[in-house]
Design goal:
- The chain is built from 12 helices and 6 strands.
- With 302 residues, the protein is of the alpha+beta class.
- A hairpin with a 4-residue loop joins strand 5 and strand 6.
- The radius of gyration is 19 Å and the shape is globular.
- The C terminus is likely disordered.
């Protein structure tokens, strides 16, 4: 089956995720992290793009990139190919460094953007590598906290969004749980994150619990035969978040909700169309699910 073409939006803001091949490490020494950032800086400049946030984990990469009129694929293909050549030369190896195509998701909501920045900077903490975001050298946290750090990061736009939520610093975003429904914040209680061991994706059951909390629909109604409007909307929300944002397969989601993979794909397409039509309610709910997944998801009756 031919690959589906990627959707390009001029000046679009994208969350980019690239994994190591077979979950193997992408970076082995500090020089590798610096080489990737140098390559990324070179090609973002050449393509008129801007890097707004990043974290380079040992076996995967998260970026928030704003493109120009040139598509993201032009940038990322050059970055991944050039870095692969660097690794293969340095370690006398051949083959792929990254696992297939990178994933990219359009970021079209301020609350969702802040949730992503927070998630990216807390990735090393969730993975148990460091105790605090500032302890990890290979993320954009230091650019926001101290005005310096490895790589070139454009911080002005995210700072403006932080200010619109009455946040004075990146630490406010990382230490407080954002409630996109009303723009207010509350103390973030911490605790063990409900994510898979490598810190990449939420577990399917965690997404289900968070969707139940956001929509007010019980988990049993989401996964059961109930066809009422609220339950269907909750399934659509779960399907879109799990497939498009968490990178789970339609088959995995289908097994969770007791539907066919085709039905899951239809749900994903339905939410995609509504987001494209500018229905902000869906963007708000997606941001709330992400915010909840930054902490142990609340228990929902089954």
């Amino acid at each position: 089956m031919p690959r589906q073409p990627r959707i390009h939006v001029d000046n679009g803001l994208y969350h980019v995720l690239a994994r190591g091949n077979n979950k193997e490490d992408v970076f082995h020494r500090p020089e590798d992290y610096l080489a990737y950032l140098s390559i990324l800086d070179r090609f973002t400049r050449e393509n008129g793009a801007q890097l707004h946030a990043y974290v380079l984990m040992p076996n995967h990469v998260h970026l928030i990139v704003q493109v120009s009129s040139l598509p993201l694929s032009t940038l990322m293909q050059k970055v991944q190919q050039t870095y692969t050549q660097h690794v293969n030369r340095r370690y006398a190896r051949v083959g792929h460094v990254f696992q297939g195509r990178y994933k990219a998701f359009l970021v079209d909501d301020d609350a969702y953007l802040l949730a992503l920045v927070r998630y990216i900077h807390l990735n090393p903490v969730r993975a148990g590598i460091t105790a605090a975001p500032g302890d990890y050298p290979w993320s954009s946290h230091r650019h926001y906290a101290a005005g310096e750090g490895p790589g070139r990061v454009h911080t002005a736009f995210v700072r403006e969004v932080l200010a619109s939520y009455s946040m004075k610093s990146i630490e406010d975003c990382e230490s407080l749980l954002l409630n996109p429904a009303n723009g207010q914040t509350e103390e973030f209680p911490g605790g063990r994150p409900t994510r898979d061991p490598d810190g990449m994706c939420p577990a399917p059951e965690a997404i289900l619990r968070s969707v139940a909390a956001v929509t007010g629909v019980s988990m049993s109604n989401i996964t059961g035969p109930v066809r009422e409007h609220a339950a269907s909307r909750a399934r659509w929300l779960l399907a879109y978040y799990a497939v498009r944002l968490a990178g789970l397969s339609a088959g995995t989601v289908a097994r969770l909700v007791g539907r066919s993979p085709a039905a899951v794909t239809l749900a994903v397409n339905e939410v995609s169309a509504r987001l494209a039509a500018g229905e902000k309610e869906w963007a708000r709910m997606l941001a709330e699910v992400e915010a909840l997944l930054g902490q142990p998801a609340p228990h929902q009756p089954s």
